[in-house]
Amino acid sequence: MVSDYYSFKVNIVDKIFYTEEGNQFPKTAIITLFDKNNKIITSKDYGYLDTIDVYNHIDKNEQLNFDYCYIKNFSITTYRRLRLIDKKEYVSIKGISAKHAFFDSNFNIDFSFIKITEGGMNFSNTHFAEGDLNFANTHFGKEKTDFSYSVFRNDKADFSNTIFGNNGVNFKNAIFHKGTKDFQYAVFGNGDVIFTNTEFADGDVSFINANFNEGNVSFKIARFGEGNVIFHFAKFGTGQISFERTEFGNGKIDFRTVEFNKGKVNFNRANFGEGELNFEASSSSQGKITFKRTNFGKGSINFEIVECENTDVIFEKANFGHNDVSFYNSKFKILSLKSCHLDSYLDLRVNKCDNLNLADTIARDIIDLKPYDFKIYINTL
User: Fold this and answer.
1) Is the model's pLDDT at 280 over the cut of 80?
2) Tens digits of per-residue pLDDT, 15-43?
3) For the chain, which terminus, N or C, has the lower number of CB atoms within 10 Å?
4) What is the mean predicted confidence (pLDDT) over 349-366?
């Protein structure tokens, strides 16, 4: 369904709706999308599922099937109130499938404190139209979690303190609209985590203290808008980590104290906008971190106190713009700034580096190599 529209209208009619899998619902929800001039963009039919019926299925410990359905005001918090359950007590559900569904709410679309006991959660191609979205503290189950091609038109999307299973998390081609996206303290399991080609739009995005564990992680071609992107204290495992061709937009980009572990990290051809870029005290136990043909935009660049003693950190044909760059008191196996463009002050007072490479680099300002408060260990310059 179209993601860019101004308003929508829902009409519930007494007409049986049949899904592609053969399920049927006694009523049909006709959803019409309008542009800002109140002209119709498109219209689509869904099965209508009343929330009271959904709550009854939860009572019976049945798997929830929202495929091709329209659901209004779904709230697991409301369910708890109706069943006199404590607001932070987990509600157990076998599994949830909501492919090609449409959710909207006058308040919150609320899936918080749910524990999937058998299957997983599938929200691929699903539309979250109105109301803040809350998946906080949810256990997504052992199976794959799928939000691919979904649309989030919520002012706030909360995935904080969530626990995902070991079979992967997929947000590929998902579209978020303006607002905050919160993945603080999320645990992503040992499967692959895919945010490839995800549109994050304007608003702060937080992965503070997120744990990506052992799978591959991809933000390839993802696009962030105006706002801060924060990975502070995040932990990665042994998988490949890709920010290739990622558009970071304007705002603070924070990778402070991130543990990249043993994974190969790729920032090749990434574009950073206007705002501070901070990798201070980040670490990698071994492997390689590459910034090939990366464009660093406008803002200070901080790689101070970085712990990469057994890691190659490669900048090749990177454009640092008119930004001060600092590698003060950091440790590297190899630090290479080959064929780069440096128009401002470069602090290369590293603590330790087996090989420091500046071949073919153009520097138009001061390069500082000699610290006064600690000894340096550089084998080859």
Assistant:
1) yes
2) 999 988 888 999 999 999 999 999 999 99
3) C
4) 89
- Inform me whether the pLDDT recorded for 125 exceeds 90: yes
The 3-state DSSP class for residue 132 equals: strand
- Between CA 110 and CA 102 the distance in angstroms is 14
Interval 62-71 mean pLDDT: 95
Give the C-alpha separation, 129 to 42, whole Å.
15
Calculated CA dihedral for residues 212, 217, 223, 224, nearest 10 degrees: 20
Cα gap 116→139, rounded to integer Å: 6
- Residue pair 67/101 in contact (Cβ under 8 Å)? The answer is yes
- Cα within 13 Å of Cα(140), Cβ side: 28
Query: What residue ranges in 117-256 does DSSP mark as E strands?
Result: 121-122, 127-128, 132-134, 145-146, 151-152, 156-158, 169-170, 175-176, 180-182, 193-194, 199-201, 205-206, 217-218, 223-224, 229-230, 241-242, 253-254
Confidence of residue 356 (pLDDT cuts 50, 70, 90): very high
Length in residues, the chain:
381
- For residue 59, the surrounding DSSP H or E stretch is helix 51-59
Question: How far is CA 348 from each of CA 93, 279, 322, 339, rounded to the nearest angstrom?
Answer: 55, 15, 16, 16
Two tokens, residue 341: 């463009």
Residue 1: is its pLDDT beyond 70? Answer: no
Q: Which residues contact 33 (CB under 8 A, 6 or more apart)?
A: 1, 2, 5, 7, 8, 40, 41, 42, 43
Asked if residue 367 has pLDDT above 90, the reply is no
Tens digits of residue pLDDT in 140-173: 999 999 999 999 999 999 999 999 999 999 999 9
Q: What is the dihedral of CA 292, 298, 300, 305, to 10 degrees?
A: -20
Chain mean position to CA 128: 17
259-279, pLDDT tens digit by residue? 999 989 999 999 999 999 999
Element (H, E) at 81: helix 76-82
Contact, 169 vs 150, CB < 8 A?
A: no
Residue 63 identity (one-letter amino acid): Q
